[in-house]
Amino acid sequence: MTAPTRLEIDLGAVAANWRMLAARAPGRTAAVVKADGYGLGAAQVGAALARAGCGDFFVATLDEAVALRAVLPDADIAVLNGLASAPADAFLDHRLLPVLNTLGEIAAWGACAARHGHAVPAFLHVDTGMNRLGLSAAEVATLRAAPERLAGVSIACLMTHLAAAEWPDDPSNAAQLARFADARAALPAAPTSIANSSGMFLDGAGSDLARPGAALYGLNPRPDRPNPMRPVVRLMAQVIALRDVPAGALVGYNGSWAAARPSRIATVAVGYADGFPRSLSNRSAARFDGRAVPLVGRVSMDLTTYDVTDHPGLVLGDWLELIGPHCPPDALAAAAGTIGYEILTSLGARYPRTYSETAAPEHTA
Question: Which pTM was predicted?
């Protein structure tokens, strides 16, 4: 039986986006594939990126890294959450690079090196203003005063994370870059990693290893400018019911929408259980034949309704585009009061995923 939804993922566009970003970078360009490749399938995305030439990958957790290692036996894979939830030896068993975020993690990694009788590589994360993970200025000062604490730790890269790189005029960008320069001067010489997707478009954020994530999947790294990235995701939903209602009829839970005229209502099998936000209720639109189809009524757990009165050619079984070239994830996110990251990473398991690799012309830097 054909599923009433389909999630189409263009791996060729992912690869093209990575190549475009890599052409901008002064050094190497990694790929962030955490959260199951931002909801699109880390195994499939990772393999496509490796075919495009990417050899460096970032994930959030050890479990994600182990799964990716099975697909990419030769890649360098770094784990952003570090040793917080797994013993150090597990990283060595799978040839993974932890991102060390505290003095305690540095000590644990050094102890692991001592047990194995040789230095072991890791990323060192310096917090320059996010106040989530990473060494504080006081911890960096401790390492400067006691460099023996780094015994056994081969620093593969010194990294930080920018909080507002998508807004070039935000003063926090310059402040973070200055703090990172101070930390770099206090620590052993090592390659650097600064730029996330938006950071790759920020003056002064160039480094030896860029690590884009969201831009690979078609999200706009510069919200103040047209999106330079190729679209990657298309979510289609089939009309499973059509109903003609009189003027004044209420649609959906709590009757939050009333028909102002005799209307035709189409129902699709997508709801908040599929990661389609309830906050889109009465605030969004799908597309049919490239034209807007307003979402009316509440988004419920499994169903969403659209006003197709102005589309007399639409029939039962036709498909609406909920995300795609005419409904980009960033626009859907704006209507939902969230960000494109959340739209992609919330895409539900009930969507059958299909993968393609287009040969369309690519962007240039």
Answer: 0.94
